[in-house]
Amino acid sequence: MVTEHDFDDGAAAAADLARRIEALLAAAIAQRGVAAIALSGGRSPRPVLEALSAAPLDWGKVVVTLVDERWVAPDHADSNERLLRETLLQGAAAAARFVPMKNGAANAYAGQPECEAAFAALPWPLDIVLLGMGEDGHTASLFPGAAELVEGLSTDALTLAVTPPAAPHQRMSMSAKAILSSRHIFLQIGGAAKRAVYDRAMAGGPVEELPIRVALLQDEVPVEVWVST
Ligand SMILES: O=C1O[C@H](COP(=O)(O)O)[C@@H](O)[C@H](O)[C@H]1O
């Protein structure tokens, strides 16, 4: 089931999404003593991550990881790990246990087994998977047209290495199975172009055409979507 939260302005959407994440993480800590969240990179989540960083959570009980990563050094401008370290993992939130996707392997394919082992050790089901979406309908690093898309949609593994058809850098991505092994899926999208892609995805059609459909058109996990236009 998809619940949509519509906003005119991106800052208000980000603040509302951060409050919703904070509430769910706090509830998970109260109920199970641990909370776990997988976060997207790219441009969209920055204000959410900055707001969430100030949340008065027991951060030592929070496990943080990524839904995807570019296979670049953690100090590279395109690193999603760098984004998290610069925004969320600051102040009290630096006490969270961050599980990176990137490791020391020469490429994403060689690094996948170590990443998979790190993911297998996470506290499943994750409480929240925060997805983003590209204007091509990709989510995490499940790209339309990628050689690994069918694998990403069907594998029993939690992670896979991907070479995007157009975007730079090899990637590590959570698989569809991993995304759907969460308690809550959140999606954040901003702008008219992404809104149009989201509407097209919701109207139905092949997942291979718009991979975001793997999260939207399913009944296993509740989905909330924050839309700002
Ligand atoms: O490459 C990526 O793109 C998507 C969307 O990013 P955005 O910059 O348009 O917000 C993102 O969700 C994903 O994590 C990232 O690696």
UniProtKB/TrEMBL annotation:
EC number: 3.1.1.31
Catalytic activity: 6-phospho-D-glucono-1,5-lactone + H2O = 6-phospho-D-gluconate + H(+)
Domain of life according to the entry: Bacteria
InterPro entries, per the entry: 6-phosphogluconolactonase_DevB, 6PGL, Glc/Gal-6P_isomerase, NagB/RpiA_transferase-like
Gene Ontology MF term list: 6-phosphogluconolactonase activity
The UniProt record lists the keyword Cell inner membrane: no
Domain Glucosamine/galactosamine-6-phosphate isomerase: 9-216
Entries under Pfam families matching the protein: Glucosamine_iso (PF01182)
Keyword Hydrolase: yes
SUPFAM superfamilies reported in the protein's UniProt record: NagB/RpiA/CoA transferase-like
UniProt family annotation: Belongs to the glucosamine/galactosamine-6-phosphate isomerase family. 6-phosphogluconolactonase subfamily.
Purpose: Hydrolysis of 6-phosphogluconolactone to 6-phosphogluconate.
PANTHER family: 6-PHOSPHOGLUCONOLACTONASE
UniProt-recorded name of the protein: 6-phosphogluconolactonase
Upper classification of the organism: Bacteria, Pseudomonadati, Pseudomonadota, Alphaproteobacteria, Sphingomonadales
